Prior knowledge:
Chain A is α+β, with helices and mostly antiparallel strands. Chain A is built from 20 helices and 29 strands.
Amino acid sequence: MTTTETRTENGPARRHGEVGAARRRKEDAHLLTGQTTWTDNIQLAGTLHVALLRSPMAHARVRVDASAAAGEPGVVAAYSGADLADELPGLPSAWQVTPDWVAPEHKPLAVDEARYAGDAIAVVVADTRAHAVDALDAIEVEYEPLPVVLDMEQAMADGAPLVHADAGTNVCFRYSDTFGDVAAAFADAPVLIRRRYVQQRLVPCAMEPRSVLVAPVPASGEYTVWSSTQIPHFVRLFLALLSGVPESRIRVIAPDVGGGFGSKLDIYAEEMLLFALARKLGRPVKWTETRSEAFQATIHGRDQIQDLELAADADGRIRGLRVALLADMGAYLQLLTPAIPLLGRAMFPGIYKMDAYEFGCTGVFTDKTPTDAYRGAGRPEATFAIERLLDELAAELSVDPLEMRRRNWIRHEEFPYPQIAGLTYDSGNYEAATARARELFDYDGLRAEQARRREAHDAVQLGIGVSTYTEMCGLAPSRWLGERGYAGGGWEAATVRLLPTGKVEAVVGTSPHGQGHVTTFSQLVADTLGVPFDDIEVVHGDTAAAPAGLDTYGSRSLAVGGVAVWRAAQRVVAKAKTLAAHLLEVSEDDLEFADGTFAVRGTPGATKTIQEVAFAAFAAHSMPDGLEPTLSADFVLDPDDFSFPHGTHLCAAEVDTETGRVTIRKYVAVDDVGTVVNPLIVEGQVHGGLAQGIAQALHEIAVYDADGNLTTGTMADYTPPTAADLPSFTLDRTETPSTTNPLGVKGVGEAGTIASTPAVVNAVVDALRPYGVRDVAMPCTPERVWRAIHEAQGGAS
Amino acid sequence: MTRISVTVDGLDAVDEVEPRTLLVQYLREDRGRTGTPVGCDTGNCGACTVLVDGRAVKSCSMLAVQADGGEITTIQGLSDGDGMHPVQKAFHERHALQCGYCTPGMVLAAVDLLREVPDPTEEQVREGLEGNLCRCTGYQNIVAAVRDAAAELRGAS
């Protein structure tokens, strides 16, 4: 049976000990005082600086002569893609989603054809960054423009220009799945809702631009790579696989990393290129992207067209769902590109029961920056679709949207619940989260105000948006990944060491870049070992110190990595107990362990602290037979299954029907992320997630002109929200522990982003229903809102 | 090359710089003050904000030669050595940073804001920090931290 408890925001921790305490972060001090090691901060003697020439044309045959740049001041070397073609292997795409996918070669420097504006075609290496950039002007390039294809539907038409002529098609893959009897579910359905929604292309905009520094030791063939990456272990693996240099000679360090959101979950051209240049030139080489480069050369997110059909009974009970997606790959496949829309495959049904479900997805190449994982990666798109459809269904039947959800959702006593797409939801209590959200929001009061404003034909209308989401966290059971064509696994590794001084090192394979793992994992270890929080160091992000790991993405770090840390700490306690029993000359069964001390039952004073045991294990003067010296343990954890956090988000938006301006008046988020280790960090993750989801709903879109130029290529044009654009959020939690891991944790990194986009758009549309509006395409900018009103009213826009 | 004389975090410096050198490049590459990061190339993000003669300046939008004769305070020189400035402390207490990349600029912009508006409303903080982007926090805890620091600074003065 699940237990559900409600805690108030910033309330005192319920539990004793560290887990549940709002610990302030260990990570903060150096970040607050500028004592940081961002990759670009690292200065090594003799470093050469790299600048890249990028194609200004979205599709062109290129003939590049870099030789003239070699004579420019300070220049050490200059190469075209053709110059390095034999030395640079193609970049990897690790998730083959169908047996017959099309995966075109993706060279770090394009050899004779550029396929998106920003595709790198030549490189200069010089003594200073300024010299390298200056010398780009001396490179001679002839561009022969080729036809550009930007629209997915046009790209699939007969005779469309091809992004990759050799492939003979712009279709990367076609995937489909059917669950239940879809035809029967749709036959004679009393209610049929058919909609097309567009998930606009987004730019992740982590605040730290990417940066790579590679330092070789030519005499020994060793390399140290610093990269602003979420995945140092993957970078090392792929550098080794593609270069032939043994992994043991490659050390990859992710030092301080300034945000990622999926955009640094990739093997990038510049990482491969700089490794090759360091190898070739025998000197350290460094590259840091400008923000303008980042807009073009760092992956984009979303970009999906969703054709949706929902069949329901007359009372709104869902019978079936059909989903047909077009997903824009961009010009090439990056590490996980084709898999991103398919990560949403099983999440379109959301928290609802239904008889049948059909999913289809076609991946399409276009002459644009490649897409890949961006916060939520496939699940925000799925959640948006189903949560928008539920609101449309409610409106069609004139039923309150929360009531419509109640009629269809999985009830709390039905968990674990095998949902229609084959996943088993571990636990949840949608009733409890919704009741709490409703209360905090004053749902009935705001509905009454909405009715008054509608009655009064107020120019500023009030809309109420609902989102009752779930998502899958904890990537991922390795067997599940293998069955779906992913090349790697989903386990996570940890080592916990009690050092001779009694201090603790927890070595983890996750690689944080803002998430607060050092603090969270310290709390887990402190409780398990009974040692002070401040005595624990968490070591991460360096393959020399933490050689095993699969890094940070997919809300996996606590649900997979945290469990590995906890298991390793438990093993340390078990070993310490064996040694303590030996030292105290009793049976292990006679010992109890609490607050870091082993005590012999019934014998006051016969104790050993775990720190004393640690020193005894180090000195090793008296070890029991078969017990190795030192007090350390490893654990590699492969998760049994996913975990499924959920929540109810309610948004009240005021929409000015004369200007189209949307203002969020109130936003309540009640999330259930299972057991909470640090409520302060969880709230921070939700705040940031909400901001990014609201940004998709209201602010952000990557726009290309007809020639394939990204016209929203700066922060000024792309308009990520500022402090003045966002409201304060009201948060609360219910807590239904996960049943798929022993900590009961679920994951929180993506929840806010997944939930908030449909909540906001539902609010905007709800405000405008009296005007006949039933959709506003994202982002709901004043112009788009205004046009939607005028189009619905039959006026020219 | 042009000669400039500046004070950076309390230390006097005389350097020859190319006229095109941005103040942030000078601070990072010539003075080694890498605590000031670069987040964009269009003056939008505010990550590189420093104080020049006490006023917040985006150091990517000023040439080093324009700072000649000036007194520059970066995040590395904000506290006087023993502990942190009240704004830094409040950011820690309120969990107002995650990845920390925007933090130096956000803290210094807040210091300048509180000099001008010692007791800001939530709206004044949000408007006052509009020139500094954060992608992690959703700003809520930053706003709370700045208002906490304001109270602390008013109490101290």
